[in-house]
Amino acid sequence: MVRFKNRFLLFHIHYEGTPNCAPPPIDTTLHGGHISSVLKESILLNFGDFGAGIAATSTGVKYFSPYTSTGIIRCSRDHYQMVWAALTFVTTLRGRNVLFRVVHVGGTIKGVQQEAMELDKKLLNELETTGVITASQTDLLLEKARTEIEAVDASGKGGQKSLHLPM
Amino acid sequence: MPVSSQEQISGIISNQIDFQSQISQQAGRKGCLDEFVPEVRASLHDELQATMSAASPAKRDRSPSQPSLDATHPSKKPLHATPTASKPPSGTKFTVSGFPFQYLRLRLVTADDHSFDELHFRNAINHALREAFGIVGAGHHVDLLKFDQSGQEGLIRTPYDSGPTLRAALTLLREYQSKELRIDVLDCSPYLFTVAHNSRNWAP
């Protein structure tokens, strides 16, 4: 049986700071589909038809939270460095200047899930202390994050939109 | 090395020296190599001595049975005397390294027989790399060394490792500036003189 080996990239988005050094406004309409289309464009621009062909079927955004701006991308093991590089080359997202930082790379979904939950918890607590969201919202979001992260399936079924090149 | 095999080897070498001295004697009998026969035997003798001393410096005094060469050379030093310095066996040194460049001879063929100048030709190669392999692919270093506008033939150079990528990109190119075209690779070699001239096409 041929095993499809994956790599899961846990990433965090940094937005360009506002003039008053206030935390950037949260865009709650942002979802995994936006991330995957931006990633697909970056692969096509930087690695050409060859890169787009390799990455299309195996790359997908499995989880994304607009509150913490963190997400999980799944890609094949052989080309994860190309996907990582293309993600780093992304500079704008829906008109805002951004920086993608890959925080953790894992071969199994379990390790990445744990890291994702810890990162989300840390960031949500920061949001609570800076007063962007209330305590009750934090608990709700934590619960939501946990269910969504645990729903990420290693085999690729479920989760959010995967890369889909229009034919 | 165990002694027995050494003696075997020296036995084989001494047999060879006998054989070769016989041949040189025969050649000497024909009269043309008379003056060379002693030198040939002496040089073979020297080589045997050198390999023996290099292989086992401790076993010099236990030298195996020598061929009867010294009977014809009374002036030669006796074999049992230890040489003053062990001569390293002579050999040849090769240096092997990779190729720095790959040279390709290309021909541009357009559907409507349009003729491009060398700037457009170089740009078409860049376009091919960019389409197939993106910005990162277009970074592969390509030099245009020669271009013949009438025949639309060019000679390019690229680092050896970029060869397969460049060749794939050139194969996939099908249009440039809204003109249908293709690029044929006429010749490809790591040596420039191979692609520069072809003895089949050369006519004085």
Automatic annotation (TrEMBL), chain A:
It is found in: Nucleus. Component of ribonuclease P, a protein complex that generates mature tRNA molecules by cleaving their 5'-ends. It is an enzyme of class 3 (hydrolase). InterPro entries: Pop5/Rpp14/Rnp2-like (IPR002759), RNase_P/MRP_POP5 (IPR016819), Rnp2-like_sf (IPR038085). This is Ribonuclease P/MRP protein subunit POP5. Belongs to the eukaryotic/archaeal RNase P protein component 2 family. Keywords: Nucleus, tRNA processing. Its EC number is 3.1.26.5. PANTHER family: RIBONUCLEASE P PROTEIN SUBUNIT P14 (PTHR15441), RIBONUCLEASE P_MRP PROTEIN SUBUNIT POP5 (PTHR15441:SF2). It comes from the Eukaryota. GO terms for molecular function: ribonuclease P activity; ribonuclease P RNA binding. GO terms for biological process: tRNA 5'-leader removal. It catalyses: Endonucleolytic cleavage of RNA, removing 5'-extranucleotides from tRNA precursor. GO terms for cellular component: multimeric ribonuclease P complex; nucleolus; ribonuclease MRP complex.
Automatic annotation (TrEMBL), chain B:
GO terms for molecular function: ribonuclease P RNA binding. The keyword Aminoacyl-tRNA synthetase does not apply. The keyword Cell membrane does not apply. One of its GO terms (cellular component) is multimeric ribonuclease P complex. It comes from the Eukaryota. Signal peptide: none annotated. Residues 100-171 form the Ribonucleases P/MRP subunit Pop8-like domain. Residues 52-93 are annotated as: Disordered. PANTHER family: RIBONUCLEASE P PROTEIN SUBUNIT P14. This is Ribonucleases P/MRP subunit Pop8-like domain-containing protein. The lineage of its organism: Eukaryota, Fungi, Fungi incertae sedis, Chytridiomycota, Chytridiomycota incertae sedis.
